[in-house]
Design a protein that fits this description.
alpha/beta; eight-stranded mixed sheet; 14 strands; 23% strand
Length: 327
């Protein structure tokens, strides 16, 4: 059993003053639990099935809110009455959507088939065209309200424009007043590689790291460092790299190239794998921004949050999590 403890700083005041802005798409997951996945059969009976709100930044906003952070979700939401579950859930959780735009189109969705005993997931993703927020939409926001902006690694041109607006806002401000920027890379690495050097923190999923031929968190951190145009001895803005690696825990690299490997927190039993990476991301943001932890400690905290989620169905278990004492 591993216990994480820390002294209580004045983090509550920080979380009240500034919000975390999560920019991205909100989707729908149809999650089915079966005895065994067998796509050769014409028909399979499900043990349990639910429809839930999902999407990378949408999930991150949910977990951050459950941990106690002030959160706003910025994206395009559907006004189709069939998907009122999305708006109802966001309202119930106290996630601010006051600056979101709306469309009549139905959202992208995934069908997730999860085996009952192994908890292995097979995901069929419908990546249908769906409107995405633009840099012009982002320009209308009062950035003074936010202390952290988190982006999904999608729509490179618009995301680049939004990040530039944050950098322009930060220009000339004291370090303590600047907005921190994070980027979660979960798809199409090469299309968003130019965004890496613009961020403070870059989180890369294991799946995408392996697609690049990187076989460990250390290789992934070194690989992302190698795509930056400026060598480290030239003192320019550089991000920290964070790479969660399933049962091996996670690796991270500081701006000056120091690498840390953090062991996984093993749950007694894996019950639900859906959304564990987003829990890791939210736990990391919370630990850095709200709890003011150093990089390696924040990654360890994120491992613990993801592990706790694996032992429970859904995200609501995180609402009762004692952040001072995570087992």
């Amino acid at each position: 059993v591993t216990r994480i403890t820390c002294k209580m700083p004045n983090w509550f005041a920080i979380s009240v003053k500034k919000a975390v802005l999560c920019v991205g798409c909100t989707e729908v997951d149809y999650v089915n639990t079966v005895e065994q996945v067998d796509f050769q059969r014409d028909r399979t009976r499900t043990q349990h099935g639910i429809m839930v709100r999902s999407g990378r930044s949408s999930n991150v906003s949910t977990v951050l809110r459950l941990l106690g952070a002030k959160v706003e979700l910025f994206g395009v939401l559907t006004s189709n009455p069939m998907y009122n579950i999305i708006l109802d859930d966001l309202e119930k959780r106290g996630i601010d959507i006051s600056h979101c735009t709306f469309t009549d189109e139905s959202p992208p969705f995934s069908t997730i088939v999860q085996e009952r005993f192994t908890r292995r997931c097979t995901t069929v993703y419908c990546d249908k065209p769906f409107p995405y927020v633009t840099a012009e939409d982002f320009r209308k926001l009062d950035l003074n309200q936010y202390g952290w902006v988190h982006f999904e690694g999608r729509c490179p041109a618009e995301t680049c424009g939004m990040i530039r607006l944050v950098l322009d806002h930060n220009n000339g401000l004291d370090e303590s007043d600047r907005i921190l920027i994070s980027l979660q890379i979960y798809n199409a690495f090469r299309t968003i590689v130019d965004l890496i050097g613009m961020c403070d923190y870059v989180i890369l999923t294991k799946y995408i790291a392996e697609e690049q031929g990187w076989t460990s968190p250390r290789e992934a951190c070194d690989g992302m460092h190698s795509v930056l145009r400026m060598p480290r001895y030239i003192h320019v803005r550089r991000p920290c790299f964070i790479v969660p690696w399933s049962s091996l825990g996670a690796g991270c690299m500081t701006r000056d190239g120091h690498y840390f490997q953090l062991a996984a927190h093993k749950p007694k039993k894996i019950v639900d794998r859906v959304g564990d990476t987003d829990c890791f991301t939210a736990g990391f943001i919370y630990a850095i921004f709200v709890r003011q932890r150093r990089l390696a400690h924040a990654v360890d905290f994120a491992n613990a949050v993801a592990s706790h989620k694996l032992a429970h169905v859904g995200f609501d278990c995180l609402g009762s999590l004692k952040v001072d004492e995570i087992r």
